[in-house]
Design goal:
By secondary structure, this protein is an alpha+beta fold. The chain is 26% helix and 29% strand. The C terminus is likely disordered.
């Protein structure tokens, strides 16, 4: 008999509940049950036979996938619910008709391009640490940024005992009281750009993500969202497939 079972975290991801890493955290926290019993990391399920619940609610596979870009404003946290009562990106896409999850993160004080989807596999492929998907940011810092500071950041800054990956940085405009920089990163660590700048004596006063894997934010108004077009989605899917093949090679 054919074994139709798949890993529980993969099933939760496919159902749009969370990314695989997020699903693993849910399982470890005891929030997931399979056929009424607490689940464990490493469990497998048969999607057609097993009953999976998260927080008491049954998980149902999403068959109608949706992929959008949101122009996240400053002041919103990248989560579906916040225990502190802060504004969440979920509030901005409540009219989408589906439960959409963020693809990666932008911190509360940052703005710009954020993808959201109910396709857990898509989210996992774009956010997995091994992917090194390119992300472009427009960063305004206080005062002047000299070439030595930029070179140090581009080469890699040690954060939490580990150096950041080499990145690309160039000056866009420069004035007496502020400098606008363009960063191209290939990883996404917590508040990475802000911490890199602080390490070389620069203070970020505005940070906006304007592009991910060649897909640009463009003129989408702040706080608004739209579905990705076929060309954009194809580009993102191709990046994901390419990175997966590189990993398997």
């Amino acid at each position: 008999m054919k074994d139709n079972r798949i890993r529980l975290q993969k099933y939760l991801s496919q159902c749009g509940v969370a990314s695989r890493r997020g699903a693993e955290e849910m399982i470890a926290a005891g929030r997931v049950r399979v056929n009424g019993r607490p689940a464990s990391l490493g469990d497998k399920v048969d999607p057609k036979r097993d009953k999976v619940t998260v927080g008491g609610r049954r998980v149902v596979a999403e068959t109608d996938k949706m992929y959008i870009m949101l122009h996240k404003p400053r002041g919103y946290v990248t989560t579906m619910h916040d225990e502190q009562g802060r504004k969440c990106v979920a509030d901005l896409v409540s009219d989408a008709g589906r439960r959409l999850l963020p693809v990666g993160r932008l911190d509360k004080d940052s703005e710009g391009l954020l993808f959201m989807s109910n396709d857990g596999e898509f989210i996992n492929l774009l956010t997995h640490p091994s992917r090194h998907v390119s992300k472009v940011y427009r960063v305004t810092v206080r005062g002047r940024a000299d070439e030595e500071q930029l070179a140090r950041m581009a080469a890699g800054i040690e954060l939490d005992g580990r150096k950041t990956r080499p990145c690309e940085i160039e000056t866009v405009t420069e004035g007496e009281d502020r400098t606008v920089l363009r960063f191209v990163l290939f990883e996404g660590r917590n508040r990475q750009i802000r911490r890199m700048c602080e390490a070389v004596g620069l203070w970020v006063i505005r940070l906006k993500r304007i592009e991910v894997a060649g897909v640009k934010l463009g003129m989408l108004p702040v706080g608004k969202w739209r579905e990705l077009n076929e060309k954009e989605l194809k580009r993102l899917m191709n990046v994901s497939v390419l990175k997966q093949k590189e990993e398997e090679a």
